[in-house]
Each structure stands twice: as C-alpha cells, then as structure tokens.
Amino acid sequence: MSAATRGTIFLEQARVISHLAFDAEQFVLRLAAPKCAAHAAPGSFVHLSCDAAIPMRRPLSIMRADAGAGWIEILYKVVGSGLHALAARKAGEELSVLGPIGRPFSAHPERPRALLIGGGVGIPPMVFLAERLQQAAAAGAGVAWKPLVLMGSEIPFPFRTRPSRIIVPGIPEGTIAAMPLLDEWGVPSRLASGADFPGCFTALADRWLASLGAKQLAEVEIFACGPTPMLQATARLAKRYAVPCQVSLEEFMACAVGGCAGCTVLVRTPEGPAMKRVCVDGPVFDADSVF
Fold it and tell me: Which pLDDT tens digit goes with each residue over 199-216?
C-alpha cells in the first residue's frame, strides 16, 4: 500500500445484508462495512474478494454509503468468473472488503449546477454524488446545489423506471423516464438508451447546456463516469461550453492500492506529461488532463 493511502483504506469482513438481482445479470449488493461506510465519498471504490476460491479481488464503485447505519451499496454487472461467483453470495455470508479507495469527485460551491453523467457501470458514482449533494442542500450547508443526473445504458436499467415528476427546462418534453430513487430525493434525472428510451444522454447534456444563459453556464460543473468513448464525448462537450469537467476512469487493476502501478494512464500536469495510477491518484481526474 502506498504511503498516501495508509490510514485511509480499511480491510473488513463485511456481511451481506441484501443482494438484489435485476435484468441483464445486474445486481445491487448491500454490505455491512462500517469503516468503509464512514469514510466513503462519491467516486471512491472497494476492492472486493468475490469468493475464497478466487484469489484476485475485483474493483467495484460504491453507489451509496450510510455512515450511521454502517453499510455500503454496490451496483455491478456480471462479467467474468469473479463477478459470477459474487452473484451467488447470499445474505448473511461474509466477504473481505478493502476500501474506500481512490480520489473522489470534488464539487465546488461556486458551481452549484452539477451535471452528473453516468453510462452503464458508471451510474453508481453519479447516484452517490447526487445523494451527497442533495443531503448537503437539505442540511442548509450554505450552497443551493442543483444537481441534474443523466444516465445511459445499452441494456435495461437496474431499477424500475418511471416518468419523472420533476420538470427540467432545456430537456426535450418526450424524455421523461427517471430513476425513482432520485425522484424521491427531489433530484431530477433523465434516462436514455439504445434499448428503451429515446435519445443519447450526451446529446441530452448538449441540449440542456445549450438552453442555459452565460450566467447559468458559469455555475455549471460536469461530473462523468462510464465507458471511455462517453467520457471523451463529455470532455469535448465541456470544452465547447467552457465548463469544468471531472471524469472517473475505469482501468484493469491488480493491487488497487498504488503498489503495482498496473493501472497507470498518461496525464498532463503543470510539470509536463506524467503517468498516474488510476487507483489512488484517481480514479477521478480533470477531463482536460486525460482527454
């Protein structure tokens, strides 16, 4: 474990509280992991042991965390033998969890119009960030956060969708599908996919940004997680509208704590190009530095 991560990452035997299955082999796993829950932040992830017979852990994004109740929630899609084994775990069983890991998203109060864009397995960090911004706004923390969440998926969403009850100026009238949980929190969301819902979520972001005046655009910051082509498109969009953008990258990982340097990416820094580790130097980076 690198020196920068000592004392911030915890190893726990986590108990499975619930394990819900959704279409297209997608699962929402809730774990009792109080140390991880107490320190998790939107954009951080865990390195999870899927089964005793599989030595390699799997990195999975945290979708929600409740420090008071001591649980974290993970959304994942079965890909490969490790996650196939994880999908068989039942309530009451225990898993080894290492986390929370990584540099999370950082929302800036001077830009309260947070545009959150999540694609596929990039959806969980956006849900986590939306919840934290909503909680901060409800607590009267001094910032009137106004998050908007746009999600895309080429497979059915891992939740039952419904028409949103929240009007979003700048979004086409026919695009009304939303994530119920976000609607209940009072956070507007819109869904798009190649399967069930019209449009493309980056195109929806373009339409919304185009509807804003200069003063409103000056309050916007974009946060994104998903496949690399989606992140590249989002970075171009941010540059066109001259708004800051943070992206969470996905890379194959071995140790996930900065020791093996197997997840490095090329990043532009003030000192010049540098190789940075996605696990601990990221996974969140400034979009302009990586694209």
Answer: 456 788 999 999 999 999
